[in-house]
Design brief:
Two copies of one chain form a homodimer. By secondary structure, chain A is α+β, with helices and mostly antiparallel strands. Helices cover 41% and strands 17% of the residues of chain A. In chain A, the strands form two sheets. A five-stranded antiparallel β-sheet of chain A has the order 6-5-4-3-7. In chain A, strands 1-2 form a two-stranded antiparallel ribbon. The model of chain A has no long low-confidence stretch (mean pLDDT 94). The first copy, chain A, binds a DNA duplex (30 and 30 nucleotides) through helix 3.
DNA sequence: CGGTTATTTTAGGCAAGGCTAAAAAAATAT
DNA sequence: ATATTTTTTTAGCCTTGCCTAAAATAACCG
C-alpha cells in the first residue's frame, strides 16, 4: 500500500506535467508546500519505486505506473467531490477539502458504488474530467476566459478548485460550468474583463478570469 | 488534531472499559495488535494529553475528554457503517472495514449530512447504538443468545461486527437484528444451541451464539 | 571565460509510532 | 517467605516524512 504522502506527490507531479510545466524540485516543493530538500528526498524514494524517472538537477517524469497511481487518486477525488455535491448537498466550495482526505481511504468498492450512484459521470462539480477506471482522461479545456476578446462568446466549462473563497464568489454570481456568456469588454494593462450571462453583467479581474476555462462558441452568433 | 493512532487507542480502551474488562497494558496491546511496549508508550502519551489516567502497573481509565473522543470516533464509525449499508448498498459484512478508515477522516459536516440523510438513526446495521453528538450512548444489549434456555424466546438485537465471515454466515440465514426466534434446544458441555425463526430452524455453536445479543421476550407467549 | 546567483542535493536532526531485549515490579507457587 | 513466572516498563533502535544548514551543481551575466 502506498502512503498518503506518496499519493499526494504523484498527484502533484501529474498536475504539473499536465499544465505543461517542467517538474523541477522547486516546483514540486512549492506545490506540496514543503522544503526543497523534502521534495528531493521523496523524489528519490519514488524513483526507487519506479513511479518516476529522475534526472538529477533536471527534473522528473512519471512512469506509466506512476501516472496510473496519480490518475486513480484523481478519479477518487473527483468522484467524491461530485458525490458530495450531488448526493449530500455540499456547496461546491466545500467539496475539495473533504475530498482531499477521502480520496486516500476509499476502497475500489466505494469508488464503484458512488460511480454507479452518480450515473457513471464524466465531469466533477468544477467541470473537470473524471479519469475512467483504466486511467483514461478526457482532455481538459485549455482556453481561458482571460484570453477572450470583447464580442466573443462561449460557455464556462471548468473552474479550478484552488480556493474555496473564489468558488463561493463565482457561485453566488452563477458563474458555474455550462453557463453561456458573452465578453463585453476587456480593459487594457491586465485590467478587468466584463461579461454578460443572460441579463446580468459581471466584472472580473484578469487573475480570476484565468481560472475560468471556456469553450469558445463559433463567432457570429448574429 | 489527534492522530489516527490516538483515536484508535481511545476507541479500543473505551470498548474494553465498556466490556467491563480491566484495561491493562497487555489487554490493550492485544486489542491493538501491537507489542506491549508500544501500548505502554502510547498510554504515557495519552496520559500526558489528559485523555486517560494511568496507574502504573495497574491499568488505565479514560478521562471525560478521552471518552468524548472515543465516542465521537464510534459515532462516525457507526453512522458510516449505516450509510454504506442503507444508501450505497453494501452488504453488512463489508461495512466495518470501510468504516474503520473513513471514521478518521470525515468532517463534522459530513457526519451531519449523513446523519440527516439517514433520518437521525440510533442503531447501526449490526444493531449497535449510535452515540449522539454530545456523546450520549443508549445502553447496549447485554443478554447473549448463548445464555438462553430451551423454551425461551426473544428478538435478535445486535450482532458484533468482529468478523466478516461470521456476518456473512448469519446474514445468509436471516439471523439479523430484529429477528424474532425461539430456543428449541441447548446441548450440554458447551454444545450447540438450536433455535427457530419463523419456520426455519438453525443450529449454532456456542461461541457464535455468544456474539448474538438478544432481548428476551417475557415468558409465556402462550 | 570567470564570478555571482539560484537551484538542487547531501548531511544531520526531530517527532510519531512501531519493534526487540533487558530490567523492574507484581503475582503466583512452593 | 522465598522463588519463580508473568506483566509492565525502560532503553535503544528503525522507518517515514518532515526540517535547516551546508555543499555541490547549474545558470546567468558582465
Amino acid at each position: 500500500m502506498l502512503s498518503e504522502a506518496v499519493e499526494d506527490y504523484l498527484k502533484a507531479i501529474y498536475k504539473l506535467e499536465e499544465a505543461g510545466r517542467p517538474v523541477t524540485t522547486s516546483a514540486l516543493a512549492e506545490a506540496m508546500d514543503v522544503a526543497a530538500a523534502s521534495a528531493t528526498g521523496m523524489v528519490k524514494k519514488l524513483a526507487g519505486l519506479r513511479l518516476l524517472r529522475h534526472n538529477p538537477y533536471q527534473g522528473v517524469t512519471l512512469t506509466r505506473a506512476g501516472r496510473k497511481v496519480a490518475l486513480e487518486v484523481i478519479r477518487h477525488h473527483r468522484l467524491v467531490e461530485l458525490y458530495l455535491a450531488e448526493v449530500l448537498g455540499y456547496t461546491w466550495d466545500k467539496v475539495h477539502e473533504e475530498a482531499e482526505r477521502l480520496e486516500h481511504v476509499i476502497s475500489e468498492e466505494f469508488e464503484e458504488k458512488i460511480f454507479e450512484a452518480l450515473g457513471r459521470p464524466t465531469r466533477d462539480p468544477h467541470g473537470e474530467p473524471i479519469p475512467d477506471k483504466d486511467g483514461r482522461l478526457a482532455a481538459g479545456i485549455q482556453a481561458r476566459l482571460s484570453d477572450m476578446e470583447p464580442g466573443e462568446s462561449g460557455v464556462i466549462r471548468q473552474v479550478s478548485d484552488s480556493t474555496a473563497e473564489m468558488l463561493r464568489y463565482l457561485g453566488t454570481r452563477g458563474l458555474v460550468p455550462d453557463t453561456a456568456f458573452e465578453v463585453l469588454d476587456k480593459a487594457p494593462f491586465n485590467g478587468p474583463i466584463t461579461l454578460k450571462t443572460g441579463e446580468t453583467s459581471h466584472v472580473l479581474g484578469r487573475d480570476l478570469a484565468a481560472h475560468i476555462r471556456v469553450e469558445t462558441r463559433a463567432e457570429g452568433g448574429a
